[in-house]
Amino acid sequence: MKRYAGLLRGINVGGHKKISMADLRKLVEGLGHEDVKTLLQSGNVVFGSDSPDQQALATQLEKAIEAELGMSVGCLVRDGADLARIIAANPLGDVADNPSRHFVVFLSGEADPAKLAEVEALAKPGERLAAGEREVHMWLPDGAADTKLTHLLFQKRLGVTVATARNWNTVTKLTTLLT
């Protein structure tokens, strides 16, 4: 059985799409997954599954949330190797000295370099982006509150169906839960 992290986009933010973590755990267990754990209130669920297909698992989560909770929520699934690779490759390690201001934007597909350059042009002075395989590292030295670099911007400009961000603290905690 392989361990996965499910990343739900936009739940429990600003009072919208409220899902209790107990309900999320129950939903994921009801899909036949094992050793289900949640992290924080922002849509992070870790589980074991026999399925090798991350996209199929993400689609399964999306459909179950829609059917059982009546919400349309974009989901991504990553395994421990993905998260370990993201941490090992950390292209912003030389500048990102505050893990709460270093973000990883997880994407449903690869980022086109030309489109990513267009997004980067919208960054405020000091903000930096660096592409990974299916993610973009983002350094926001002034925090996320006033940046133009939102998950919706990434989603729209990069042409991916789902983009969801987690700060470095959350990425490392999820990695720990997957081991």
From TrEMBL:
InterPro entries: DUF1697 (IPR012545)
Domain of life: Bacteria
Listed Gene3D superfamilies: SP0830-like domains
Name of the protein in question: DUF1697 domain-containing protein
Organism annotation: Catellatospora methionotrophica
